[in-house]
């Protein structure tokens, strides 16, 4: 769970979230190409990318003089698993509530 906490913390910043959204939409991009997601300096984008990289949200590879970034599939899979677990929990809980209310005649079931 610690890694997922770090993932959500990294995505809690609007600039970092925008970076990940762009990478999900467009695929691998250089740090320079990602600078357009916010009106901030190149060093600021680099700091955001470092946070995302350390949290395991993005992968970085070096291509000559460019640092290329892509979304880490394992991070997306972990988020999806967490969301699905909680979705199933709430669906099951709400189904039980609906049955209980129907048994008491409080709703049509």
Structure characterization notes:
With 109 residues, the protein is α+β, with helices and mostly antiparallel strands. It has one domain (2-103): Winged helix-like DNA-binding domain superfamily/Winged helix DNA-binding domain (Arc Repressor Mutant, subunit A), CATH 1.10.10. Helix content is 65%, strand content 13%. It has five helices and three strands. It has helices at 2-11, 14-26, 31-34, 42-54, 73-103, and strands at 29-30, 58-63, 66-71. Strand 2 (58-63) and strand 3 (66-71) form a beta hairpin. The longest helix is centred in the last third of the chain and has 31 residues, at 73-103. The chain is elongated. The model has no long low-confidence stretch (mean pLDDT 94).
Question: Which structural traits does this protein have?
Answer:
alpha+beta, 3-stranded antiparallel beta sheet, elongated, Arc Repressor Mutant, subunit A, 109 residues
Topology:
Layout: H1 2-11, H2 14-26, E1 29-30, H3 31-34, H4 42-54, E2 58-63, E3 66-71, H5 73-103
Strand content: 5-15%
Which bin fits the share of residues in helices?
A: 55-70%
The major pleated sheet works out as:
3 strands, antiparallel
Reading off the top of the CATH hierarchy, the class is best stated as Mainly Alpha
Q: What number of structural domains do the residues give?
A: 1
Going by CATH, the homologous superfamily would be Winged helix-like DNA-binding domain superfamily/Winged helix DNA-binding domain
Unreliable residue runs: none
- The SSE string, one letter per element, is HHEHHEEH
CATH topology: Arc Repressor Mutant, subunit A
Q: Give Rg in angstroms.
A: 20 Å
Protein structure class: alpha+beta
Query: In the CATH hierarchy, what is the architecture at level 2?
Result: Orthogonal Bundle
Number of helices: 5
Overall morphology = elongated
């Amino acid at each position: 769970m610690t890694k997922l906490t770090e993932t959500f913390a990294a995505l809690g910043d609007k600039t970092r979230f925008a970076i990940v959204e762009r990478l999900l939409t467009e695929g691998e991009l250089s740090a320079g190409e990602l600078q357009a997601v916010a009106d901030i300096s190149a060093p600021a984008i680099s700091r955001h990318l470092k946070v995302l990289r350390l949290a395991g949200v993005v992968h970085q590879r070096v291509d000559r003089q460019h640092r290329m970034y892509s979304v880490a599939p394992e991070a997306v899979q972990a988020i999806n698993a967490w969301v699905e677990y909680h979705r199933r929990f709430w669906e099951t809980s709400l189904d039980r509530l609906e049955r209980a209310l129907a048994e008491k005649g409080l709703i049509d079931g």
